[in-house]
Amino acid sequence: xxxxxxxxxxxxxxxxxxxxxxxxxxxxxxxxxxxxxxxxxxxxxxxxxxxxxxxxxxxxxxxxxxxxxxxxxxxxxxxxxxxxxxxxxxxxxxxxxxxxxxxxxxxxxxxxxxxxxxxxxxxxxxxxxxxxxxxxxxxxxxxxxxxxxxxxxxxxxxxxxxxxxxxxxxxxxxxxxxxxxxxxxxxxxxxxxxxxxxxxxxxxxxxxxxxxxxxxxxxxxxxxxxxxxxxxxxxxxxxxxxxxxxxxxxxxxxx
Length: 255
Prior knowledge:
Helices cover 42% and strands 15% of the residues. It is built from eight helices and seven strands. It has helices at 20-31, 47-55, 70-84, 107-135, 157-177, 198-201, 204-212, 225-232, and strands at 11-15, 35-40, 60-64, 89-92, 139-144, 182-189, 243-246.
């Protein structure tokens, strides 16, 4: 993967980089040669990540970004560009989860889900594309969707809706921006053990579900590395608008 997924000379931004997939993607991009801008609401949570990347010989800078605030997004891009130049790879990863029945989803929780998981993805992608086009360069945007954007699970109506919308948004942007040299694709992870899923995975029901899935287990973080790098790197230069499940067969099994 070192040669096929070479990211040397690229400047990457990772949103939601303080934990989980975001932190993993940031380290992965750096290890392949990219300069990395790591973004999250709380910069203090990014300090150890930046130090880890630097101690491994990489280059990274932390910026504050609240994806529900367009001004915060614009400032983060300004700071990233000031540090490393035009951002040409975006891991559009920030997101939230909310497990509750549809009758218990109030307007505030619905809005929080859509503002973060959908509107935030749109504004980050739009900001990245505007800057790439202005600089006369192409790039790659990888939106983190979910297998629950491809099918549904009980008690997650707002989350499933937000991620399904991300898949459709990805396809729409891919059509519009392909001629500009900008590839937009979606990664659709299944069940991986992250900070967001740790509590849910501890329940007996979750363990029983995972044992009944085709792979009979959750994903290991390294198992999403290759699929992510395929979409983010020039190895995926002919991929536009795909929604790639990485789920151990969960999306074709029982939910």
